[in-house]
Amino acid sequence: MNRVCAALVLLMLASTASRSTANDLPSQVDLRPRFESLDLAPRHQGTRNTCSLFAVTACANYAWSAAGQPKSPVFSEEFLVWAANEATGRRGDQAMFYEAVQGLNQLGIPGEASCLYHATGETERPADSTISAAGENSGRWRAHWIKLWSTKSGLTNEQLIAIKQTLAAGRPVACGLRWPRSKMPAELLTVPPTTAVQDGHSIVFVGYQDDDGVAGGGYFVLRNSYGPGWEDSGYGRMAYAYAGTYANDALWIELGPPRSEVPTHRIEAESLALVEQTGCRTQNASMRRYGSGMWSGGHQLQVAAEPEATGVWQFTVPQSGPYRVRLVTTAAPGYGIITAQLDDQLPTQPMDLYAGRTCPGASLELGTHRLEAGEHRLRVTVVGKNELSADFSFGLDALDLLPAPPTASKQEASTTEQPAALVTPNTSGGIRKASPQFGQHGPGLPPEKIRVLRYQ
């Protein structure tokens, strides 16, 4: 895919994420031909618990191509296992998606030839030359969260449609799920009882097919990490209803220009000056017990908040210029739904900070603006909570001023950049419903208008 096509894909994502419904989507999408053209056959994780690293690595390889880069070597899952541990301070093979993304951005990723995967055993520190080469690819990976991790809820209709929208725009989606205890692929086309599944396994959705004969109205095509001998050359099928019931988390990955995710100026949230508040109590909280390497400075600003609470913080921009402004958040079992507002700009769409464990949250993009040197204000408002959340609180890690995208308007408010499934306006008096609603996910179009997308 050339640079023009890559740009069109991003525009398609931005324009459809907040407006389109299932009826606007093609009936079938298949990214497997594109994976094949990139020589990215499904790989085997062996006996190690590294499925999430395989999923993120596959998405990173695909994102590299989607950004119009020269064909890359197959990236190293082994390096990403080490990088996730190094970035988070944790040990062992297993990593959550958010830990893998931390490793990808902090340390990058090299071709596998310099860091071969071992199907058994534990990872070791790569050679210094490999670490140096991988670092050239660091600081440019942007995670777009569709669902933050929780085993207490599956996908809502909005999240399921967001996955289909992302696939239709030519982007694979990494997904962690509860998996059949039997490991029989046929169970993925049903909705087995909770006693028949366990947590968990990670795969990559690479397509879908609407089909009224399958539970939920169709199925996703998935890329597994059990090698090319599993099912159909390493690919399988999963009913929409299975994903809707048992998905834990989901995201897609975008590759930006070099250093595009490295802030020009980072303002630690705990250093912000609180100048106004209603219903807020703040605390500088150490994140050591949660993997402090995932939080800037190992701390966050923890805000105990009441319903409809508002906090206004003042910060200083050291140098005038155009910036992409990003609020780095924390997600947790007791966190609510917030909006953020920069100076007199419009508020962002609401973002749900509920997750089944304390972890880095999805970043709130406040748009690209020309900011003059001097004092500015950030307003955060609690607008509701997920029905599974224990409270309305929230956590802030940092406020980042990043390089403005080359083509961005200096006054553009980028609210459309938020992940649609995380920012759907709350319902039912401020409580966002978490349970799936199995509606119609089929095309809903007359046959002459049904489209099929296959990415070559």
TrEMBL record:
<dbReference type="InterPro" id="IPR000668">
    <property type="entry name" value="Peptidase_C1A_C"/>
</dbReference>
<feature type="domain" description="Peptidase C1A papain C-terminal">
    <location>
        <begin position="25"/>
        <end position="245"/>
    </location>
</feature>
<feature type="compositionally biased region" description="Polar residues">
    <location>
        <begin position="408"/>
        <end position="429"/>
    </location>
</feature>
<dbReference type="Pfam" id="PF00112">
    <property type="entry name" value="Peptidase_C1"/>
</dbReference>
<dbReference type="InterPro" id="IPR038765">
    <property type="entry name" value="Papain-like_cys_pep_sf"/>
</dbReference>
<feature type="signal peptide">
    <location>
        <begin position="1"/>
        <end position="22"/>
    </location>
</feature>
<dbReference type="GO" id="GO:0008234">
    <property type="term" value="F:cysteine-type peptidase activity"/>
</dbReference>
<keyword id="KW-0732">Signal</keyword>
<protein>
    <recommendedName>
        <fullName>Peptidase C1A papain C-terminal domain-containing protein</fullName>
    </recommendedName>
</protein>
<dbReference type="GO" id="GO:0006508">
    <property type="term" value="P:proteolysis"/>
</dbReference>
<feature type="region of interest" description="Disordered">
    <location>
        <begin position="405"/>
        <end position="449"/>
    </location>
</feature>
